[in-house]
């Protein structure tokens, strides 16, 4: 009998890379375990997980929203509605009863597309947000946005010549999924010198280049607000992108999971692509994604999200339904999380004051940390950092001295991986090297989250490390 080997598997699987949980995260995990031993010998006493936008991760300080967890508690254990009813605000009790009335036990499979009541809540949220109607039949609840992205890419890629336009830098879900389904990534580069803006002419040039190379562009992926950049698109850019999709008959995948993470909403507001498409009366097929993992909800582990199909022909919606039904249904606790996300307490509800206080605290902390971190990183020699108006991250650029480039080469690492490993070894701070997201040839970046408490201590450690690193390799 021959043993199972990786060579016998689908070769596409071997090409998948996902840097957010890559080499750095694996070493950080090892350090986390080592730190439990009495004489660990490490030069730090905690690992700071700045590598992943996982707001409730152990060691970070974002608490779950009380409203969300109270609904979760009552729907998980309905007995509490009899024995502990008075412990919960009235609006929470009535919401839980409404959900249970519709769902029955959350231990049962639901409609494959998601509980109809929750899809109606989502449609309501979207129509209020955009001022355009939304149809619950065109909404699919998912196990996080990732599941929806993965499903739709698997359906859109019909041959290795199927091109999917992706921003560079991008969130590696896209390159990983394209590798898995053997699609052709068609990169378009974001412009760091203008706050990581998206240039429609650059997107068009990427489409033209792909066409010349025999690639058939199928879809344009836009992440707004951006990951890892935090950039927000202007409406003018959004309109131009929609028009490009129209001109080249390509679908638009709008990844809007950070739509609630706005650090300066008055100067940098969020506009959904759904609104832009409807305002323009554009016929393009649009898939818009949202998630309970980000925003102030931060319920990553609960795996909840949805996508909405706009201008997607019925025969395709039916095929999507067929595909999701193979997986039976998204986790019901995640679906309930979606309901809490899109139907938070209203003014006048008993839960409202606490919900408002908790959400404001999270928004304010994130905005303040982002600003402080960007300013301090920007002040370092050999580093520049665009201050981001949205999402959870910064993506500073490194201009490393020749000595560091040579040492990285000798170590068989890219310069940014070399830098990030040295940072982790010395300080316990885990970031993700820029090459995991894509960057221009010869450039170095890294992504760090703005979710960690104790910014002074943590950025201080990062500054000390950076200054020593630059000195060591002849940068200052
Ligand atoms: C841009 C973007 N899209 C999608 C996701 C996936 O989120 P989830 O599957 O947890 O909803 C993430 C997670 O970090 C992300 O940054």
TrEMBL record:
<keyword id="KW-0663">Pyridoxal phosphate</keyword>
<keyword id="KW-0808">Transferase</keyword>
<comment type="similarity">
    <text>Belongs to the class-I pyridoxal-phosphate-dependent aminotransferase family. Alanine aminotransferase subfamily.</text>
</comment>
<dbReference type="InterPro" id="IPR004839">
    <property type="entry name" value="Aminotransferase_I/II_large"/>
</dbReference>
<dbReference type="GO" id="GO:0042853">
    <property type="term" value="P:L-alanine catabolic process"/>
</dbReference>
<protein>
    <recommendedName>
        <fullName>Glutamate pyruvate transaminase</fullName>
    </recommendedName>
</protein>
<dbReference type="GO" id="GO:0030170">
    <property type="term" value="F:pyridoxal phosphate binding"/>
</dbReference>
<dbReference type="Pfam" id="PF00155">
    <property type="entry name" value="Aminotran_1_2"/>
</dbReference>
<dbReference type="InterPro" id="IPR015424">
    <property type="entry name" value="PyrdxlP-dep_Trfase"/>
</dbReference>
<dbReference type="GO" id="GO:0008483">
    <property type="term" value="F:transaminase activity"/>
</dbReference>
<dbReference type="InterPro" id="IPR015422">
    <property type="entry name" value="PyrdxlP-dep_Trfase_small"/>
</dbReference>
<comment type="subunit">
    <text>Homodimer.</text>
</comment>
<keyword id="KW-0032">Aminotransferase</keyword>
<feature type="domain" description="Aminotransferase class I/classII large">
    <location>
        <begin position="89"/>
        <end position="457"/>
    </location>
</feature>
<dbReference type="InterPro" id="IPR015421">
    <property type="entry name" value="PyrdxlP-dep_Trfase_major"/>
</dbReference>
<dbReference type="InterPro" id="IPR045088">
    <property type="entry name" value="ALAT1/2-like"/>
</dbReference>
